[in-house]
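Journal club prep — side note

Before the paper discussion, L.F. wants everyone to see what a predicted structure for a comparable chain looks like in token form. Sequence:
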Amino acid sequence: MSSTAAQVVRLLTVNGGTLAVAESLTGGLVAAEITAVPGASRVFRGSVTAYATDLKHRLLGVDDALLAARGAVDPQVAADMAAGVRRALGADWGIATTGVAGPDPQDGQEVGTVFVAVHGPSGTGSGSLADGKVERLRLNGGRAEIRMESVRSVLALLLRELADEQTGNERAQDTERNGGF
């Protein structure tokens, strides 16, 4: 269990939020990291490991035309996966991983090309990049290292978004307490 996963579970618990995970190259490692945290059952709704490209469409609602045109390793695909798993599993937050862990390139993308995404309650739910955050990673190392760094990166991205939301909520409460000034 990572300290980042523990912090994610803590912030979600404090804020009454829930989480769903969509994974491709990480194959369930993100969900395993979260569920290793005691108390994760209060916030973790579930996960979809959509390793095959057609499952990204069928289970997560990623547009077929997008997948055909750009392949599965794409920032918009990552955004759509995060929004899709959030919608499918009824969670406040959705996160996603898609990329190339190797040993060979895929969809014209080099080994180590990874996209991680988060889609939260402030998004409109359409899955466009504007509704969430997507980060492109260029990772080095072997297959296992690329997969584990992808897990760390998506959890760190979610943690930053949760912390930003927490800070925003605290500012709004301070403003309310101080008469709107």
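L.F.'s comment for the group: DSSP finds six helices and five strands in the chain. Keep this in mind when we get to the figures.
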